[in-house]
Amino acid sequence: MIDKNTISDFIVEFYTSKLHIRFGFERHRFIFIPVFISVFEEGLYLWRMEITVRLANVDDVTLISKIGYDTFYETWKDVNSPTDMDVYLKKAFNDQVIFADILNPSNTFLIAFADNVLAGYVKIRRDRTYDELNGESAIEIERIYVYNEFHSKKVGKHLMDESIRISIDEGHKWLWLGVNVDNHKAIKFYNNYGFEIFGEKNFQLGEAVDTDYLMKKKLKI
Questions:
Q1: CA angle 216-218-221, nearest 5°?
Q2: Residue in 145, 147, 190, 213 annotated catalytic
Q3: Which of 4, 28, 47, 77 sits in a 20 to 30 Å window from 145, CA-based?
Q4: Model-level pTM?
Q5: CA-to-CA separations, 88 to 1, 77, 171, in angstroms, rounded
Q6: pLDDT band, very low/low/confident/very high, at 73 (cuts 50, 70, 90)
Q7: How many angstroms separate the CA atoms of 14 and 12, rounded?
């Protein structure tokens, strides 16, 4: 006989992972229905969540700086020194730098919201390319950052879809980006969109030098 603590632990694990529904049904019939309802309710919430993406302007400088700072820090703080992180964050997500970037006609910033809550942004730029792109028109996703709590809510997908739409509308042949070689989740996300690795580049973070993969996607115009 299973005690209440065991049942509670099983339900939490079952609900969190959303896996092994058949196993739960066969072994513990009496908990199948509440677990199913919990998963269904979360799925319904995600289905109803409204994701919006809009063009950023100079009034959004503080929002963009905050997203960039927060998401970069939470992703890389455990594998870089505090000093290197501090140097990079202050340089990359300084309000004056972001302000100048928004005004630069080579750049486009898009901001995403989930039910009107700030969720992420993407920065597109048009002033860099690589020989491997054969001299054809190319556009770059320099940054695509989404808060962790929105990773499962397709915010990244909305930002990527809009970036691809803009790239095609402008007549570019290639969309490319750089991604840290250890960021396996992001690499998988890009692979699912048809990006492929075509090289590597260095990424300076304070005194540290990391390695990024270069990835490209052929656009169908």
A1: 145
A2: 190
A3: 47
A4: 0.78
A5: 56, 11, 34
A6: very high
A7: 5
